[in-house]
Structure formats: structure tokens, C-alpha cells
Amino acid sequence: MTIYEAIKALVNYAQNKGLIEKEDCVYAINSVCQALGLDTYEDCAVKSDDLEEILAAILDWACENGLCENSVVYRDLFDTKIMGILTPRPSDIIRKFNELYEESPKAATDYYYAISKASDYIRAYRIKNDVKWITVTDYGDIDITINLSKPEKDPKAIAAALKMKQSSYPKCLLCKENEGYMGRINHPARQNHRIIPTTLAGEEFFMQYSPYVYYNEHCIVFNGEHIPMVINKAAFQKLLDFVERFPHYFIGSNADLPIVGGSILTHEHFQGGHYEFAMAKAPVETKVTFKGYEDVDAGIVKWPMSVIRIASDKKERLVDLADKVLGTWRSYTDEEAFIYAETDGEPHNTITPIARMREGKFELDLVLRNNITTEECPLGFYHPHPEYHHIKKENIGLIEVMGLAVLPSRLKEEISVLADAMVNERDITADERIAKHADWAAKIMQENDITADNCTDILKAEIGKVFTAILEQCGVYERNETGKAQFIRFIESV
To answer: Which residue in 7, 79, 224, 453 has the fewest CB atoms around it within 10 Å?
Structure first.
């Protein structure tokens, strides 16, 4: 594909996807030519409508002509600049979104999600390479994913980033100032990024989609101000305000303490989307009543973690009860259950909340979290324990709490190498890539008749079991009669 064919194909793609109108095409061609340093253009036939192929041709030409370094970080910066030229202005997208919202909230988000993919802000062709499967458990069907869509930095870009002057603009990856930002080696380009304003509990918030899409319409809703994450009464109000405005979406918040919190605790934000997780499908197994809130449906959810579900058609009642549960939990200690509100002045108790609409009622799941550490578990006691670190040792955040494992990308290669070693009975400890899996693999081989046809499927099923066991470890109350009694004791204290 020549550079002129690639430019023509890209502009045709933009028109077909609704990024530009027919009348914009000549202007768009000239704008792309300008970005490529071309002062001439030759009209030609279009041979492709595949965005990945078109952008690859443009990037290859740019690299050959000294406009771009030929590595993934630099290529991402350059093609985002090109796509930014073709992405509608923020005011145009907001106006269209609001017009469609009058038709229905779903029509508005359908449009916005389509634009986010068409503009290549969501790189759909990378997401399709993610590894996904389902593990059947006693708690329902758990989603397992190995996410490969977030590119790893190459050594050249890492070296360049170390030499760069540190910048505080934008303050973080969630700030509204990212919209249209050109990016740099240590901060992704966002010229094709557009955000939708909304108001939650009287504060200015914005909605965007995650560029890495762990699940359908994975959105992020962030405060217009760069302020820290905090779980409090206002947070519950904001979550319920959001699902009232977008009843087809759920929304939740990571906890506000290290270990059990999310990766960005410095900027208040929530995560939502159009997806039903296993936890949302899980039933209430023990109904409870909170004194003074007899009008609110409540119960303990059948889930590996410790979850209280409350529901009401009155939003304010849920906010008040959730705040009461949170306030009690913050200061709650039960030594028998190894729950300490604080040690040496460090607070440990918080909540991961998730909101949704169900059959016309507001519903909140309150997941009790505790971030205490021990000598045996220095990364956190209610956290993946060391025996499972060969699969995952990262934090268990909101998405995983709800039943979707986001596993490290290294596992894709490791599963393949491990399966080959198991089938051919090679020494697993001799290969540094998979040596950490040796004990686990030996146990699997002992319990299963391993063949070339079934090994990978067995490994995937066993990974699902490990993730379920990790969720049980993250639950502050054990899934047995003693744990249930301790859980009820807390509920009675509320």
C-alpha cells in the first residue's frame, strides 16, 4: 500500500465510521498530509478498510522517512496524532451524546462507545488478542482473562523516559487535561480521547472508556478535580446517581486503602460498564435485617469474598445504610476472626462498593476489605497468598472482586511452555520461565491423565480454581459456619 493509498483509505474509513462527513474529506486528506510532511497528494483507489493495516502502512512510511522511531511506544504516539486529526471535536461529541440521551441512555452510550473504537482510542484489533475463558465454580461462572492489549514499553523508550524532565501535566492518566493531549514517552498520547461531562452528588465528573477494555463498555467515571480516592457517604451517593442516569450500566469503586485499593488512589474515579459479572448473578444466601432499616432488603451474598447486598427503591435509604455499615466497619475489631480496625495507628478496614439497578430498585453490594499484613503474608493477609503468586500476586481490585480475573500477560507464554513440558515430561524446574509452576504442575499431573489434546484446557481450568481460591483468601470471613457466625456478629453490631 503506497502512502497515498493509505491516506485515502484512512479518510474513507473515517467517513464510513462517522468520524467525519463527506464534505470533510478533502480537508481531512490535506490535514493528514500536513502531519506527514507531504505538500502533495495523488488520488488513488482504496484497497483496504482495515484500520490496523492502514495505520501500519502509514507508520512504516513514517519510520522509513525519519518521522517516527520504529518501536511500539513511538508508533503509538504517532498514529494517535494522526487519528486525532479525524476525531470529532469534544463539543460535537457531547452535543450528539446529549441528543441521543433524550432518546435513551443506551442510545447515547452506544454512540459514544462506537466513536471511542472508531477513533482508535480503544484499539479493538489489540483487544481481540486477549486470552479469555470461563471457569465453572460453586459461585457461578468466573471470567478469566490474560490482557495483552496494553503494550509493554521497549528498552529504547524506557531509556529515553529516564532522561526526560519530569512533568506534572497532566497530573495523572485520569485528569480531564488528558483530552487531546499530545503525549510523551512516559505518558500516552490522547489526541483521539474524548470525555463526557456529568454531575454526581453535585460535583463535576466525566465519563470515558478504558482504552484496554477488560469487559464490554468498560467505562471510567472520574472527578473533574485531581483529588484522592475516598469511600464515604458521598461516594455511595455518586454511585447511585450514576446508575439512576445510566440504568443499563453498573458502577463500582475500588477501595481507598493500599493493597486492597486500585492502582490509582490519587484521583477519585469509579469503573462501570454494560456487563453482568458473576457476583451480580450470585444470589443472597442469608437474608438479614438492619435495625432501623427494616424497609431495606439486605443479605449476605453467596460469594467467595464477604459481601453484603442491600436494595431499595429509595436511593437515600441505601446511602444512609451504606454509610452506617461503612462507619461501623471502619472501627470494627474482632480478634477471633483476625480482623483489626488498625494496628500501630494504621487503618485497615474499608469497603469496595458496587451499584446497579435491578427490577426498578437501587442495589448496592458492599464488599468488606481489610489490608492487614503478617510476616507470612507481607503483601497482605486478605490478598493472594504466597503459594499462588506464581499465578498472580497483584492487588485484587474492583474488577476481580466482581469475578473477572485480570492475569499478568506473562501467563500466555508460560501456559504454552508449561503444557509442552508436561506433555513431554521435561524437567520443569530447568526452565526459568516456568520453574515457579513446578510444584503446582506436579500436583496437576498427579490428579489428571495429561495428553497433548487436554493439557492446555486442564491448565486453564486449574488457573480458574486458583483465582477462586484467591478470592476466598481475600474474603475477611471464611466460607464456613464459624466465618458465617462472625459475619452475622458484625452485621448485628451495625
So the answer is: 453
Only one residue has cell 445510566, namely: 246
CA distances from 429 to 43, 206, 385 (A): 60, 49, 21
pLDDT tens digits along 47-68? 899 999 999 999 999 999 999 9
DSSP state of 187: B
Which pLDDT score, from 0 to 100, does residue 163 have? Answer: 65
d(CA 136, CA 281): 13
- The reported pTM is 0.93
Distance, CA of 374 to CA of 386 (rounded, Å): 12
State residue 175 phi and psi, 5-degree precision: -65, 145
In three-state secondary structure terms, 162 is helix
Whether 205 shows a pLDDT value over 90: the answer reads yes
State the Rg of the chain over Cα.
Answer: 25
pLDDT score of 152 more than 80: no
Q: What angle do CA 192, 198, 200 make, to 5 degrees?
A: 140
Rounded Cα distance between 158 and 154, Å, is 6
- What is the number of alpha carbons within 13 Å of residue 100 lying toward its C-beta? 17
